[in-house]
Write a structure and sequence with these properties.
single chain, alpha+beta, Beta-lactamase, five-stranded antiparallel β-sheet, two-stranded parallel ribbon, 15% strand
Length: 365
């Protein structure tokens, strides 16, 4: 599935960046610090090739190491994030654990409200007892809406109170005025059909804080499948771009050691069905509703460079992952070009606003 992009060198030179090694993210945005002096160079209109073909209503790709926006499309447009809303729920749960308000081993009794939540679920039964850890992994990897409600109720008196915490955190992070959570999971509200609202920029900023403040979350989101503490049943991550090359290598090693023909054939069939994924892909969260379309916030690390991308309102499951792959591959190439430009102290600035620009997040959009 890995596809080498044929982005022309001219595309890579369409990079406009306030170059600085001390560019950092703040609670109000990504890469808000400026460099006082830089050399400007105008590049004529150059097509953005594959990036122009990203099939999403809105998209963004960010360098997590520096907090710099690398490319965006309609990143300030308010849209429904669907289950990408859960990255804020994930953040608040991890924050509560860090603050000692809850424990991973806390036992949560499932309420009627949680059990009746629809969409993607773990089919939680009212009165059942689950640990915070099992609920969290179910929400984060299998996108279980009932687990999300159960966690929200455990952290606050009810889901409504938890949603208030989500919106307060949105203000703390400096999200746009469009940002509004209506529940902990991203589904439409049962009666009003109202959905949460975020921009691609907002979603990227939440993801940035999640990765920076709780990097251990990647150790979870990189897992293609998982089991619960009380069951051997396998559940699968909704992220179909996960890097599975190590897993494939391990299975190939196992295949070489098998002597039983039936077992060998079974393992060979399994390997044929496995997608190798995108190299370095290790997170983060899918989303889908009729209104939101197919969305995805993804992150990948390669050679010490971590990128974060968001695609919103694509028209199919396949499209969201294809768009993500394009964004992340292009982003990695752009970063390499930026490093080269830093080394030669050449900082090209493009003036055509319809083309690629890499500015700080607040000034670029």
């Amino acid at each position: 599935m890995i596809r080498r992009l044929t982005i022309a060198l001219s595309l890579l030179l369409c990079v406009s960046l306030f170059m600085s090694n001390d560019v950092t993210a703040t609670s109000k945005g990504l890469g808000n610090k400026y460099v006082s002096a830089y050399e400007k160079s105008t590049i004529s209109k150059i097509p953005t090739t594959e990036l122009d073909e990203v099939q999403a209503e809105a998209a963004i790709v960010v360098d997590v190491n520096t907090g710099q926006l690398l490319w965006q499309k309609n990143a300030r447009e308010p849209l429904a994030p669907a289950s990408m809303s859960k990255i804020m729920t994930m953040y608040l749960v991890l924050e509560a654990i860090e603050d000692g308000e809850v424990n991973r081993d806390d036992v949560v009794t499932i309420s009627e409200e949680a059990a009746e939540t629809g969409g993607s679920t773990m089919f939680l039964q009212e009165g059942a007892e689950w640990t915070v850890k099992d609920l969290f992994v179910s929400m984060a990897l299998a996108s279980a809406n009932d687990a999300s409600v159960a966690l929200a109720e455990h952290l606050a008196s009810d889901e409504k109170s938890f949603v208030k915490k989500m919106n307060e955190k949105a203000v703390e992070f400096g999200l746009s005025s469009h940002a509004n959570f209506v529940n902990s999971h991203g589904l439409p509200q049962p009666k009003t059909r109202e959905e949460s609202t975020l921009t691609a920029y907002d979603t990227a900023l939440i993801g940035y804080h999640l990765i920076q403040d709780y990097p251990e979350v990647i150790e979870l989101t990189e897992k293609p499948q998982f089991t619960l503490s009380f069951s051997n049943q396998q559940f699968y991550n909704t992220n179909q771009l996960l890097d599975r090359q190590v897993e494939i290598e391990q299975l190939n090693d196992s295949l070489q050691q098998l002597e039983d023909e039936e077992e060998r054939q079974e393992l060979e069939d399994q390997l044929l069905l496995m997608d190798e994924g995108l190299q370095g892909m290790d997170g983060l969260k899918t989303g889908y509703t009729n209104r939101a379309g197919y969305s995805f916030i993804g992150t990948a690390e390669r050679g010490g460079q971590r990128l974060l991308s968001v695609v919103m309102k694509t028209d199919s499951n396949r499209s969201r992952f294809q768009a993500t792959e394009t964004l992340l591959e292009a982003g990695l190439i752009i970063i390499l070009q930026i490093e080269s430009l830093r080394a030669t102290e050449i900082v090209p600035i493009i003036q055509d606003k319809s083309r690629i620009h890499v500015h700080d997040m607040d000034s670029a959009l």
